[in-house]
């Protein structure tokens, strides 16, 4: 009988196996993976910002796009993101399990940058509504990000990784409205910086989306490099 604490089966690592590389890394590095956890936190933060960033100016934006705005239309606009996410979350989870987390993360990254910018450039109510719906529908990132947080850490650090995801998500929901309200209507608030003939004067809410887009692009580009190199599933 094997002595207490002795492994009954010998661990075997195969070459060109992403999962084996991560397991070996976790065996060697017993500390908290600070770098990987920081990427997870930043990615989650950028994912949660679009959820609530529009609430300070959603009514004014729709009134500008359509004078016949109603409470029902405002409700549809505000809920379009979460409705799209609710419809597709399980589908993205199935895709991530079957084809790997990498394509889901890449698609979600591109969709956040693309649809959020198009939302700020919307020319009518229905375009804005569809952009929010598509943004939520293609935003299947939280599941793969949680899986990544667990995979790159040892068992005793799993709770820390998942707690960072929840904390970053909550912070994004808090600062999202503040950021959206601060950057809305820049030509009126900051006439010394933005001309009345500029795009920001014609599209009052473009600066909100563009600033968040530039921030996300930098964070996501770095995050993708790390994920593509370290993901256990292709």
From TrEMBL:
Compartments it resides in: Membrane
Keyword Transmembrane attributed: yes
Domain Major facilitator superfamily (MFS) profile: 36-234
GO molecular function: transmembrane transporter activity
Secretion signal, residue range per the UniProt entry: none
Protein name (database record): Protein ZINC INDUCED FACILITATOR 1
Any GO CC annotation of this UniProt entry: membrane
Keyword Transport: yes
Superkingdom: Eukaryota
Gene3D superfamilies: MFS general substrate transporter like domains
Membrane topology listed for this record: Multi-pass membrane protein
Keywords attached to this entry: Membrane, Transmembrane, Transmembrane helix, Transport
Chief place where the protein resides: membrane
Lineage, top ranks: Eukaryota, Viridiplantae, Streptophyta, Embryophyta, Tracheophyta
């Amino acid at each position: 009988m094997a002595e207490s604490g002795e492994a009954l089966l010998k661990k075997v690592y195969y070459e060109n196996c992403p999962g084996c590389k991560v397991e070996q890394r976790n065996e060697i590095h017993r500390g908290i993976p600070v770098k990987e956890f920081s990427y997870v936190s930043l990615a989650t933060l950028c994912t949660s910002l679009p959820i609530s960033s529009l609430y300070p100016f959603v009514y004014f934006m729709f009134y500008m796009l359509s004078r016949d705005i109603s409470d029902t239309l405002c409700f549809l606009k505000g809920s379009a993101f979460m409705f799209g996410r609710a419809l597709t979350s399980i589908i993205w989870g199935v895709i991530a399990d079957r084809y790997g987390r990498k394509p889901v993360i890449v698609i979600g990254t591109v969709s956040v940058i693309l649809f959020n910018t198009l939302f700020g450039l919307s020319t009518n109510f229905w375009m804005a509504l569809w952009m929010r719906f598509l943004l939520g529908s293609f935003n299947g990132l939280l599941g793969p990000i949680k899986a990544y947080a667990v995979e790159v850490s040892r068992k005793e650090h799993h709770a820390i990784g998942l707690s960072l995801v929840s904390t970053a998500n909550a912070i994004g929901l808090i600062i999202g409205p503040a950021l959206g309200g601060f950057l809305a209507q820049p030509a009126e608030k900051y006439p010394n910086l933005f001309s009345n003939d500029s795009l920001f004067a014609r599209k009052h809410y473009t600066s909100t989306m563009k600033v968040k887009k530039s921030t996300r692009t930098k964070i996501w580009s770095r995050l993708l490099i790390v994920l593509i190199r370290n993901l256990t599933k292709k």
